[in-house]
Amino acid sequence: MAEEKKKILIVDDDMFLLDMYAMKFNQNNFEVNNATDGVNAIEKLKGGLSPDIILLDVIMPKMDGFEMLKQINDQKLCENCVKVILSNKGQQSDIDQGKSLGAAGYIVKANATPGEVVKEVLEILNKK
Predict the structure, then answer these.
(1) Please, are residues 66 and 96 in contact by the beta-carbon 8 Å criterion?
(2) What is the CATH number of the domain that holds 68?
(3) pTM score
(4) N or C: which end of the chain has fewer CB within 10 A?
């Protein structure tokens, strides 16, 4: 019997990156949902989407990733899902802020290929 697919919600305003990461996670047996900003992602979660993991960017229009994490926590959305930040903001203060908002991981886009992102996400999920 096939292993059950993990559900991932990828949140990024860059359509090229969104499509590329969606393809990579699909190839690695994930059921992929995506959103182009924090507002859209929150709406999907309120609508019943319950991913195993949320992979989110920080710099996005309408609502940035930090505000999105804060709202997810405040509204008790997706309490059991793992949250991983994927951003080009790699300052220690950004990493600390992400961790303080419950991010289980912080990946700097410029330092990781899509394959490495998938590998790191799988490692974080396996630690859960």
Answers:
(1) no
(2) 3.40.50.2300
(3) 0.94
(4) N
